[in-house]
Design brief:
Belongs to the isocitrate and isopropylmalate dehydrogenases family. Its EC number is 1.1.1.85. The chain is built from twelve helices and 14 strands. Strands 2-1-3-12-11-4-5-10-8-9 form a ten-stranded mixed beta sheet, with helices on both faces. A hairpin with a 5-residue loop joins β6 and β7. The radius of gyration is 21 Å and the shape is globular. Bound molecules: 3-isopropylmalic acid and magnesium ion. The site of magnesium ion has 2 residues, from α9.
Length: 403
């Protein structure tokens, strides 16, 4: 049965802000051997394409280890999705994959897509499978935190003084807007020229519910919400702004501001520390979250959670399938590990288990391990597998650090 969470979720309070790298005086204590699991969860794993299977395998091992420590049990169900599913079944999201996802407590996705399927017709693209999955699970709220870890400040392309201390959350609307709006398609214009068209459309209820998630999120963070739109041009954005202002009256303790998306894109690299929580539509959120990720040093670091009103959440790194490095053991598994942490926290309410993963990621970085995307001179360059093994060691050695 799916956890009936979701909008009561305990909003994201980055665990990264406290120091957990200090040596733990109890760390030599031997942990109790695996307790009988008190709770059992079904987790659907969708490794997908490219580096997806590599990073999912790391996350699976970490979850397994956490389970033995916490006395919980995971029943993993691995299902095909994206290009892998296309090759196997002819569709990017097979019916069995969607129903397994719906029947589980949480879904962890690697990445989808690759050159091989780039020229497929739209309904046979891996990306279409992902959109169908989001729609099928009704996960309209996509949380994408971008936190600059002290260990990785120098991996950012921005100057230290600009990047240091950035800790923001993009709340992206995920099941509406131009990604899903109708009419859409191809046609011919009055001059006989071929056209492609899409529709940016939002209904009141869609804006209201994402606004509430964003206000709740901001309230549990630093109390600042910036709504990003293009209300100087687009009707859908005009309604967006009107509704966000309306919902704001329910949250007098949250400071609301509005920003046009072009300005927001500029402000994100000019002075990202001005942002706490950002709420925006589907396509602006897609773009701004990639931009925000680079402030942190690498897109290979950023997790995400997609939540609905009920039913399982979908958790995935925000990076893509990186076909150029697939199968070469070069991928950074940390975004997927942190997505697994979000799964534990938001999807299953297993806060302590989530903290274990976050702590272990930080500890592994503290010990100098880096994949290529976050490497700088003098540190230990490792591949995906070894990074995963080091994180497991950190989980193991920190067993008693989290009471
Ligand atoms: C993302 C991705 C997807 C999106 C693609 C793969 C459909 O870019 O999750 O950000 O556009 O939402
Ligand atoms: Mg994207």
């Amino acid at each position: 049965m799916a956890a009936s969470l979701q909008l009561n979720f305990k909003p994201f309070k980055p665990q990264f802000t406290h120091s957990i790298s200090a040596p733990n005086k109890f760390s030599t204590r031997i942990r109790c051997s695996a307790a009988t699991p008190s709770k059992s969860y079904t987790v659907t794993l969708l490794p997908g394409d490219g580096i997806g299977p590599e990073v999912i395998s790391v996350a699976r091992n970490a979850l397994q280890l956490i389970a033995s420590i916490e006395g919980i049990e995971f029943k993993f169900k691995e299902m095909p999705m994206g290009g892998a599913a296309l090759d196997l079944t002819g569709v990017p999201l097979p019916e069995e994959t969607l129903s397994a996802a719906k029947d589980s407590d949480a879904v962890l996705l690697g990445a989808i897509g690759g050159y091989k399927w780039d020229n497929n017709e739209k309904h046979l693209k891996p990306e279409t499978g992902l959109l169908q999955l989001r729609e099928g699970l009704k996960v309209f709220a996509n949380l994408r935190p971008a936190t600059v870890l002290p260990q990785l400040v120098d991996a950012s392309t921005l100057k230290r003084e600009v990047a240091e201390g950035v800790d923001l959350m993009v709340v992206r609307e995920l099941t509406g807007g131009i990604y899903f709006g109708k009419p859409r398609g191809f046609g011919t214009n009055e001059n006989g020229q071929e056209i492609g068209f899409n529709t940016e459309v939002y209904a009141t209820y869609e804006i209201d519910r994402i606004a509430r998630v964003a206000f709740e999120t901001a309230r549990k963070r630093r109390g600042k919400l910036c709504s990003v739109d293009k209300a100087n041009v687009l009707e859908a954005s005009m309604l967006w702004r009107k509704r966000v202002m309306e919902i704001a009256s329910e949250y007098p303790d949250v400071e609301l501001s509005h920003m046009y998306v072009d300005n927001a894109a500029m402000q994100l690299v000019r002075n990202p520390k001005q942002f706490d929580t950002i709420v925006t539509n589907n396509i602006f959120g897609d773009i701004l979250s990639d931009e925000a990720s680079m402030i942190t040093g690498s897109i290979g670091m950023l997790p995400s959670a997609s939540l609905g009103e009920s039913g399982p959440g979908l958790f995935e790194p925000i990076h893509g399938s990186a076909p150029d490095i697939a199968g070469q053991d070069k991928a950074n598994p940390l975004a997927t590990l942190l997505s697994a942490a979000m799964l534990l926290k938001y999807g299953l309410g297993e806060e302590k288990a989530a903290q274990r993963i976050e702590a272990a990621v930080l500890n592994t970085l503290d010990r100098g391990y880096r994949t290529g995307d976050i490497y700088s001179a003098g540190l230990k360059l490792v591949g995906c597998k070894e990074m995963g093994e080091e994180v497991l060691k950190s989980i193991d050695s920190k067993v008693t650090a989290i009471a």
